Amino acid sequence: MNRVENKIKLSEIENMVKEACYKPTNVFGTGIWEHHIKWVVKFGRMLSSETGADPLIVELSALLHDYASIKSFALYTNHHVHGAQEAERILGPMGYSTRVVEGVSHCILTHRGSMKLGRKTIEAQCVADADAMAHFVGVPSLLNYALEGKGYSVQESTAWVLAKLKRSWNKLSPVAMKLAKPYYAAAVRLLNDEDQVTDVILPYKETVVKRTLQMTI
Ligand SMILES: [Fe+2]
Ligand SMILES: [Fe+2]
Hints:
- By secondary structure, the protein is mainly α.
- It has a single domain, classed as Hypothetical protein af1432 (Orthogonal Bundle).
- Helices cover 73% and strands 0% of the residues.
- It is built from 12 helices and no strands.
- The protein has helices at residues 3-21, 31-51, 55-64, 67-71, 79-91, 98-109, 122-133, 139-149, 154-171, 174-191, 194-201, 206-216.
- One fe (ii) ion binds at residues 65-66, 79, 111-112.
- One fe (ii) ion is lined by residues 65-66, 79, 111-112.
């Protein structure tokens, strides 16, 4: 596959994932594209050039790593397994080589730190790192999820997000830590400032914030 063909195929996959994110069946909401997938791709690119990983395998994996659960929440629990199988079904017929298809499949299968599945390639580590790093720029979405999805108060939500970011930080490889440091520091600074937290949340869910603030006064 030459460069031009590659670019066309990548944008086809990007459009396919984006479309799934904007469908009403996606329970995570459209934010999963803007605040998560796009950033996993961006951080994946940074990590590829820093580590010498194959940028195509990392980019394809970043785009497809959560695709199964975006399409169907019923697949969420094992979305790493379903996602790896789905990637093979998509990429093989598109003309990608066995090396690329197998590389992507392994990255998706091992992207979740909680699953403790051994990562055998540098690309798999890049994707897992980029996935964790994306949390540092997704603070509004995470706060919103804690407030609405979990029904927490503003204070509980802030503590929950801080703990989640800390877990993500601790999972990172040394190279990713170096790249992620300013993003992590900015997120922690924001979450430790009550006024900033309110400023972040208000445009999203004004009524929820008012309700939870009243409950805690
Ligand atoms: Fe995932
Ligand atoms: Fe993810």
